[in-house]
Amino acid sequence: MLAPDWIDYKILGTGGGLKLEKWGDIVLLRPDPQAIWDPTVDYKKFDTHARYERDRAGGGRWIVNKPMPDEWKISWREYVFSVRPTGFKHTGLFPEQAVNWDVLSKIVKESAAKGKKIKILNLFAYTGASTAVLSKSGAAVTHVDAAKGMVERANLNCSLNSVPRENTRFIIDDCKKFVQREIKRGKTYNAVIMDPPSYGRGASGEVWKMEDDIFELVSLTAKLLDDPDFFLINSYTTGLQPQTIENLLTLNLPSGKTSSYEVCLPTECKIALPCGCSGLWRKE
Q: Nearest CA to 194 among 179, 204, 182?
């Protein structure tokens, strides 16, 4: 599945463990573990604003080659998103997820046209691009992430898109603990999005490992569904196949239409860059 309709974002070249991207007017070079082929372009010939270099300790830093803003904005269709490079090589936006914004926003708009406002629980919601798109499309989105800074940026993305405040609720919390509390409170949702990391640690030292913990979380979260419309799982974990994600949904959700797919970005060198996978359950 190729992310559609990007104008402000382009991949200029890939290979050698790197990808060269243009974010609006800013050109960045950063690592990509999937780009294992020889470079499709000569990176040195491009006027790159910054490149990300890893260090031996496992972290890394941005090497700035020419003046660039700390933060800027790019557009996808009628939506606007904030971009800000972080010390973990990310920019706060994952353009490949436009594949899922496209599909889910259509579901939300179709339901709204029939008089149903879908209540969505967005777990590991990060900087809130999906929250902005779906809440502006007419859903009521509960946005949950354990990182305060990410939730603040999600607020910014919603403000940039003039999202009605009544359509969003922002929660800073551990996703599993929040789900457990919502079950006890008797809360329900019509849809779920979850974008869990491959590995992480909670505020109290809890260890999250995708392969070990995702099935239990999906099982718990499924208990919150009432009159469900969709359930989306994104995975960037190397080695987890799309069919594995699809199986998690099939085993935990009622009969419906379940699909899985590799999420990719088009490139200027005419190949697709793989960016993880998604599984989507939809009601019949």
A: 179
